[in-house]
Specification:
The chain has about 500 residues and is an alpha+beta fold. About 30% of the residues lie in helices and about 20% in strands. Helix 5 (about 210-245) runs parallel beside helix 11.
Length: about 500
């Protein structure tokens, strides 16, 4: 087959013509088309008659006809997993019997250079020393070392099927750009000596791949800044707990006295939280207001003590309509959300969480006492653990705080906030659970300090006014039975004149 051409239609309906020959890879067609259309080739795929093409194939093996019309479609943002096998040259292949290759599952957005670096330091090498990207050899003449003894760079040569990648520009291509988005790929590795000194090659490598290093630097800097911030915030927060442990337990009987001791801090807290705080709440270990509720006096829940009738459980027409609406919605076909819709949904979720200014968190203790605090967007799990330890009689015992339902454990660290990190957008109940290393004697001891027990109050359950719900009438009106047309009097049937004479004598 001689050289021919194909047509590629972009997402904006622009059309370009690409010249191809039987050995042209489909990735080259995609790259040329994206260059002419002035779009990035790592964000698009090729389709032919609604069938996605395997970009790793050549034009001969792809089944396309001359003059085929290809469509440029946007690629999904989520990378896929590809099983990559690297065939090592001798003598490195002797360290990995029997085939002399290493394999690992890697994302499709990894570049060839990142894959080589991954096999150098990843788990696939099994702790063995592999040097694949920074090899240097001395200059040799007639089997002996010659020259000044300087090392010359050996550049990797990666062969994928019949394609050879041997330049730094080729090493910047990802698996997806080469057409490998699923399944597996075998890469054969060899080395070629260059005329570049090893030091000059290392400088050139840093110039080509400095973007990856720059991406890592802000993350490391951010982590260091977060550690410094957490350390700076944890030091002053530990001062009240130390003061409480050194001072004897003092009962805060009058809340006005506690407010008068530090009016400025209380005023600042009330201004920063957009939540209603009870006037009879007492102060915890820190300036945060706290409310303690005593354990219930009976084992029967309050909801079970309310009288009910059989009519409360009888379904009416509204329940039937709701059930029918649910069945209709479940019977309809629903498509999966696209990438822009998923991004819009994630942005809406982030905006909803960011709009939360304050929430109340109630911690339920093993003795059925509970305590409630108000937290803002900047409060972390370490602050919640600090408040709980401040009212415990034995604050050195280990425990964990668990969210109900999902069994998510709130971590005792300052890295993640309560509202944004755990997606808490409303008042939340948290369960207190002892760790396994806590002895039975510690668990049987009184849980709260005496000062906190004295300030506990009963949970007031508001009385719900009973309202008689008006049941909706049947939606189908009852029609009167239609009279029979039997010809008798009073019926809707009228005799014709010619039939009336037959009944007379």
């Amino acid at each position: 087959m001689m050289a021919t051409n194909v047509k590629v239609v972009g997402t904006d309906l622009r059309q370009v013509t690409i010249k191809v020959n039987p050995g042209t890879y489909l990735t080259d067609i995609l790259e040329q088309a994206c260059t002419k259309l002035k779009v990035s080739n790592d964000k698009y795929l090729l389709k032919h008659k609604q069938r996605q093409l395997d970009l790793s194939q050549t034009f001969r093996t792809s089944g396309l006809i001359p003059g085929a019309r290809l469509e440029l479609v946007r690629r999904a943002n989520t990378p896929t997993v590809v099983n990559v096998a690297l065939q090592l040259p001798s003598p490195e292949s002797g360290a990995f019997p029997p085939h002399g290759r290493v394999s690992e599952k890697l994302p499709s957005d990894f570049t060839i250079w990142q894959i080589l670096r991954q096999f150098e330091s990843g788990k696939a090498s099994a702790g063995k020393n592999l040097n694949l990207t920074a090899r240097g050899i001395p200059q040799i003449s007639n089997g002996t070392q010659a020259g000044s003894g300087q090392l010359y760079y050996e550049i990797p040569n990666v062969i994928i099927e019949k394609r050879t990648l041997s330049t730094f520009v080729d090493f910047q291509k990802t698996l997806s750009q080469l057409g490998y988005n699923s399944g597996g790929v075998l890469m054969r590795l060899s080395f070629q000596k260059t005329e570049k000194l090893l030091s000059d090659a290392m400088s050139e490598i840093q110039e080509y791949f400095k973007t990856d290093e720059k991406d890592d630097e802000p993350q490391k800097t951010g982590d260091a800044g977060a550690d410094e911030m957490s350390a700076s915030t944890s030091e002053p927060s530990a001062l009240p707990s130390e003061a409480d442990s050194a001072a004897p337990d003092v009962s805060v009987a009058d809340p006005s006295v506690a407010v008068a001791q530090d009016p400025q801090s209380t005023t600042n807290d009330n201004d920063s939280l957009d939540a209603d705080i009870d006037m009879d709440s007492l102060s915890g270990p820190g300036p945060r207001p706290m409310t303690i509720f005593s354990a219930p006096t009976t084992t029967t829940p309050v909801a079970a003590l309310r009288p009910d009738t059989d009519e409360d459980y009888a379904p009416d027409i509204s329940h039937a309509k709701a059930h029918q609406k649910l069945l209709n919605s479940l019977g309809q076909n629903k498509r999966l959300l696209s990438d822009p819709e998923l991004e819009e949904k994630a942005a809406a979720e982030e905006a909803r969480v960011a709009a939360v200014k304050a929430i109340k968190i109630k911690v339920r203790f093993p003795d059925n006492f509970s305590a409630e605090w108000t937290f803002g967007p900047d409060d972390t799990g370490a602050g919640l653990y600090r408040e709980v330890r401040g009212i415990m009689a034995n604050g050195s015992a280990s425990f964990r705080l668990v969210l109900p339902g999902a069994r998510t454990v709130i971590k005792d660290d300052a890295s993640s906030t309560l509202i944004k990190g755990y997606r808490l957008n409303s008042n939340t109940l948290v369960n207190f659970i002892w760790d396994d290393d806590v002895t039975v004697d510690v668990r049987r001891q009184p849980f709260l300090k005496s000062s906190a027990v004295e300030q506990a109050k009963q949970v007031v359950v508001p009385e719900v006014r009973e309202v008689e719900a008006k049941q909706e009438g049947p939606s189908i009106s009852t029609q009167a039975p239609t009279p029979r047309n039997d010809g008798g009097e009073g019926s809707g049937f009228k005799k014709p004149k010619w039939l009336k004479g037959f009944g007379k004598k």
